[in-house]
Write a structure and sequence with these properties.
The protein is of the alpha+beta class. It has 5 helices and 3 strands. A 3-stranded antiparallel sheet has the order 1-2-3.
Length: about 100
């Protein structure tokens, strides 16, 4: 029996096999979040339907953990982000 799922796990991160730079979660989120139709993702990244659907299957199989980690990263990025006004103030302080 041969099992083909197009997903490889490296250093605890799922990638699309043969596309070492493409994280399965990233591909799935583009479709799940409604940002891009499957065909657009396929064309832009040179993927097959099977590869995109494998990324979606991986995402849905691990959705709770992936969403929790994503929300934590988003919260950390938001907390450490600098507003435009803060950035302008830092620039002004450097000029003094």
């Amino acid at each position: 029996m041969q099992v083909i799922n197009h997903i490889i796990i490296r250093d605890s991160i799922a990638y699309i096999d043969g596309h070492d730079h493409l994280k399965a979660e990233m591909v799935a989120r583009m479709v799940v979040d409604g940002e891009h139709p499957i065909e657009s993702v396929m064309e832009h990244y040179g993927l097959t339907y099977a590869e995109v659907h494998s990324a979606l299957a991986y995402y849905y199989d691990n959705q709770a953990a992936l969403d929790e980690a994503y929300q934590q990263k988003l919260a950390n990025a938001t907390a450490s982000a600098t507003t435009l006004e803060q950035f302008k103030q830092k620039l002004a302080d450097k000029k003094r």
